[in-house]
C-alpha cells in the first residue's frame, strides 16, 4: 500500500483537517489534552489503500531535547491513528515498521519518544519500544515548566537502550 512521508506544513489543508478531526475524536476529551498547548507536528506518515483511502497515519515532532542535560535529536511520535472501522488489520503496525528507518536517516533522529497510556504499552513493546523511568519535562508559551506524569517510551535504532533519569522536551509537549 502506498505510504506518504511528508512535512506536515506541506500537507494539503483538507488532509490536515481530516487528520485533525480524527485526532480530536480520539484525544479531544482527554483532560491533559485540553489543559495544555501542544506542539504542531513537523512530519506526517500516511498509509493509503490503492483507491486513496486513508488507512492509518501518525505525526512526528522533530526536536533537539536534552537527556540528563545533553542534547539529543528526537523523533517525537504522536497521534498514531487507524480510523475506527479499519482497526485490527495491521495497518498501524505496517506503517510504523515501514517508516521508522526514515527517522534515523534522512530525518536525523537519534531516538524516538512517545508518551503513552498504560493500556497502550503492550502495543508499543511489541513494536520494539521500551519504557524508561525518566522524569519528563515540557514547557508552555508562558515559560512555565511542567512535569509530564505519564509513561515514557523510547525507540532506538540499535539494540542498545538508553535510560536517562531526566528528559527535557524544551518546549511544547506532543
Ligand atoms: C492503536 C491503534 C493505532 C492500532 O491500530 P491498528 O491498525 O488497529 O493496529 P494493528 O492492527 O497494526 O496492530 C498491530 C498489533 O498490535 C496489537 N494491538 C492493537 N491494539 C492493541 C492494544 N491496545 N494493546 C495491545 N496490543 C494491541 C494487534 O493485535 C496487533 O498484534 P499482532 O501484530 O500480534 O497481530 C488504533 O487502535 C487506534 O487508532 N487507536 C486510537 C488512537 C490511539 O490510542 N493511538 C495510540 C496512542 S499513541
UniProtKB/TrEMBL annotation:
Pfam families attached to this UniProt entry: Acetyltransf_9 (PF13527)
Xref: Gene3D superfamilies: 3.40.630.30
The species this protein was found in: Solirubrum puertoriconensis
Name of this chain's protein: Acetyltransferase
Amino acid at each position: 500500500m502506498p505510504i506518504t512521508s511528508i512535512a506536515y506544513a506541506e500537507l494539503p489543508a483538507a488532509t490536515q483537517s481530516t487528520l485533525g478531526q480524527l485526532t480530536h475524536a480520539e484525544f479531544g476529551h482527554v483532560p491533559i489534552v485540553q489543559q495544555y498547548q501542544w506542539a504542531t507536528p513537523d512530519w506526517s506518515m500516511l498509509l493509503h489503500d490503492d483507491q486513496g483511502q486513508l488507512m492509518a497515519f501518525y505525526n512526528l515532532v522533530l526536536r533537539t531535547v536534552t537527556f540528563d542535560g545533553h542534547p539529543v535529536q528526537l523523533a517525537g511520535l504522536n497521534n498514531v491513528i487507524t480510523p475506527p472501522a479499519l482497526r485490527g488489520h495491521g495497518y498501524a503496525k505496517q506503517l510504523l515498521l515501514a517508516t521508522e528507518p526514515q527517522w534515523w536517516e534522512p530525518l536525523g533522529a537519534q531516538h524516538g519518544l512517545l508518551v503513552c497510556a498504560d493500556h497502550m504499552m503492550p502495543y508499543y513493546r511489541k513494536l520494539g519500544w521500551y519504557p524508561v523511568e525518566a522524569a519528563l519535562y515540557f514547557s508552555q508559551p508562558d515559560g512555565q515548566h511542567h512535569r509530564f506524569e505519564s509513561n515514557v517510551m523510547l525507540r532506538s535504532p540499535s539494540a542498545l537502550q538508553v535510560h536517562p533519569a531526566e528528559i527535557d522536551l524544551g518546549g511544547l509537549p506532543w
